[in-house]
Description:
By secondary structure, this protein is mainly alpha-helical. It has helices spanning about 10-25, 30-40, 45-50, 55-75, 80-100, 100-110, 115-140, 150-170, 175-190. α4 runs antiparallel to α5 (about 80-100), α5 packs antiparallel against α9 and α7 packs across α8 (about 150-170). The model has no long low-confidence stretch (mean pLDDT about 85).
Amino acid sequence: MRFEVNPQDKRLRIMQAAVRVFAQKGFHRAKMEEIARTADVGKGTVYEYFPSKERLFIEMIKIGKKYYQDRLMAQIKGVEGFSEKLKEVAYLHMIFFHEHRDMAQVMMQEYLQLGAEVHEEFAQFHEQEIRVIREIIAQGTDEGSFRPQETERTALFFYGAVHAVSCRSISALGKNDLEKQAEEVTDLFLRGIARES
């Protein structure tokens, strides 16, 4: 995860260092001492801001969640057309995973062991994006761009496809490839796989 870090902002410096250490060691093998050393602060300073490694990890997820939500809403605001909005959501999801692939890999590798509070934060991260997708599909359905369907389930289908592709391609693809994949996933979702008659 890449934060814009002011050298004087010790809290953000610690979180930036934690990303590197978590990515190298994994969550459970990472030590607060290593995070402090990487951030060039004392171990006591880390504990002043974050009372535990779990709390540090949760705060990182919260910041990432807000950053992504703000970016998502800003990007789709200027996009015309419901299909284009869905494609933009898909692309932003894929590019976010690509840009923050270190943390994405930690989450995928150690998710089941991270505890209930981390799971809840991550569930909220998913839900906020599903809500945006659901609203786009509902509006598109109301205005006749999409055929009638169960909006919640349809939003989950789309999100699931986008998220699965993102997880498979976090390290292998460049930004141009991700844009192409976002187009392909959205087109497949909208048109299906049956031959046109």
